[in-house]
């Protein structure tokens, strides 16, 4: 059997982690032959709750788990980890402005970037889930200069999964028959869910989603706004934010990094922009990527029409603003 790898999950006492830990622990992410030592980080007041999570992990009786290390100390949590799920962040409280949330959370990601820099393996793959995920990932990578920037990514896979599910339901096909949906930009309500390059297979025949849906008004209107506001719709119904689906998406994202993408398929993730598609460089922007040997490559050469251009620019502009706010907070 392979040597165990150390995997950290932050916000380990929270609701996303509660679903995510089981997926990781049973082999859905790193494979069913890969033993794991789980490092669980949360803040000191949550140590009692975390102890309960540790008890439940033990009671799951999962043979891939070769150790569990609950801690409130980032130095312990990030020690020698090869994969990091950065889920923990401060939730938005009533009366809190987006700016206040950004300012509280980027500070957390500055500290965790520094801890990763000092303690993690240099090959560590870091997935940022905690919001504002794209800008937190940028901050985290900036404060971990000894780790390649390409190793940091932000989660837009939940948005991708939502878009894929919406189209599959609309066309009455299985989710697996819809491929290459793209999320461009920020994991926020400015994101641009794009099916112009997506395909659907029905009765053995593959077709472009745009042609199959055959309703441009829907694809440019309700579809886009439904995906952009899906998180708020879940909160309104459940009185809590998406957790099961967010955990599934986090597992999917890291699995894509670990095991690569299938031939002819791409996935969306927030990565440090190199200026592809005229997107500003040096922001964490969600692009379509293919992955091989744990390295991503932005899919090049997709034609961008005027509608897509305006949506892609808008979400890029928001990310530039977030970057300025975040860097100012970090310098305080
Ligand atoms: P919870 O509030 O249930 O859990 C968060 C946990 O993080 C808590 O246990 C808290 O104590 C812990 N925490 C806070 N500060 C910490 C720190 N400095 N170090 C370690 N742990 C810390 O939130 P949950 O529903 O699990 O959501 C977690 C984050 O995911 C939030 O920021 C949320 O906004 C974000 N989301 C991101 C999504 C995405 O697609 N990128 C979608 C789902 C989710 O909304």
What does this structure look like?
With 332 residues, the chain is an alpha/beta fold. The chain is built from twelve helices and 14 strands. A six-stranded parallel β-sheet has the order 3-2-1-4-5-6. It has a three-stranded antiparallel β-sheet with strand order 7-10-11. A three-stranded antiparallel β-sheet has the order 12-13-14. Strand 4 (83-86), helix 4 and strand 5 (125-128) form a beta-alpha-beta unit. The longest helix has 26 residues, at 306-331. The radius of gyration is 19 Å and the shape is globular. The model has no long low-confidence stretch (mean pLDDT 96). Residues 10-11, 13-17, 41-43, 46, 87-91, 108, 129-131, 133, 155, 158, 187, 241-243, 246 line the site of ligand NAX.
User: What does the main sheet amount to?
Assistant: 6 strands, parallel
Our measurement of the CA-to-CA distance between the termini, rounded to an integer number of angstroms, reads 48 Å
Series of secondary-structure elements, N-terminal to C-terminal: EHEHEHEHEHEHEEEEEHHHHHEEEH
Structural class: alpha/beta
Poorly predicted regions: none
Q: What's the helix count?
A: 12
What compounds are bound to the protein?
A: ligand NAX
Which bin fits the share of residues in helices? 40-55%
As a whole number of angstroms, the C-alpha radius of gyration is 19 Å
3D shape? globular
Strands side by side in the biggest sheet: 3-2-1-4-5-6
**Beta-strand level of the residues, as a percent range?**
15-25%
Protein name: Malate dehydrogenase, cytoplasmic
GO biological process, one term: malate metabolic process
Organism: Frankliniella occidentalis (Western flower thrips)
Family: Belongs to the LDH/MDH superfamily. MDH type 2 family.
């Amino acid at each position: 059997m392979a040597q165990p790898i150390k995997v950290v999950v932050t916000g380990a006492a929270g609701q996303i982690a509660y679903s995510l830990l089981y997926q990781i622990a049973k082999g859905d992410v790193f494979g069913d032959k890969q033993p794991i030592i789980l490092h669980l980080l949360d803040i000191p007041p949550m140590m009692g709750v975390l102890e309960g999570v540790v008890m439940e992990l033990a009671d799951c009786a999962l043979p891939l788990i070769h150790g569990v290390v609950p801690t409130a100390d980032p130095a312990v949590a990030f020690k020698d980890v090869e994969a990091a799920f950065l889920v923990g962040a401060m939730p938005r409280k009533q009366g809190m402005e987006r700016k206040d949330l950004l300012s509280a959370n980027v500070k957390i990601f500055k500290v965790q970037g520094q801890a990763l820099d000092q303690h993690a393996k240099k090959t560590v793959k870091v997935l940022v889930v905690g919001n504002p995920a794209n800008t937190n990932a940028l901050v985290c990578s900036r404060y971990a200069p000894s780790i390649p920037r390409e190793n940091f990514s932000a989660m837009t896979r939940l948005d991708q999964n939502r878009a894929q599910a919406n189209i599959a339901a609309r066309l009455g096909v299985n989710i697996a028959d819809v491929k290459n949906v793209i999320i461009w930009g920020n994991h926020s309500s400015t994101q641009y869910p794009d099916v112009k390059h997506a395909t659907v297979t029905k009765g053995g025949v593959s077709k472009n989603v745009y042609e199959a849906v055959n309703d441009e008004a829907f694809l440019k209107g309700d579809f886009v706004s439904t995906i952009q506001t899906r998180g708020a719709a879940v909160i309104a119904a459940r009185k809590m934010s998406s957790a099961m689906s967010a955990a599934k998406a986090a597992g999917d994202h890291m699995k894509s990094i670990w095991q690569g993408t299938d031939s002819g398929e791409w996935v969306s993730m927030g990565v440090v922009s190199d200026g592809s598609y005229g997107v500003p460089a040096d922001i964490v922007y969600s692009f379509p990527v293919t992955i091989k040997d744990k390295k991503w490559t932005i899919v090049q050469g997709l034609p961008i029409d005027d509608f897509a251009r305006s949506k892609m620019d808008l979400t890029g502009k928001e990310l530039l603003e977030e970057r300025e706010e975040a860097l100012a907070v970090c310098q305080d």
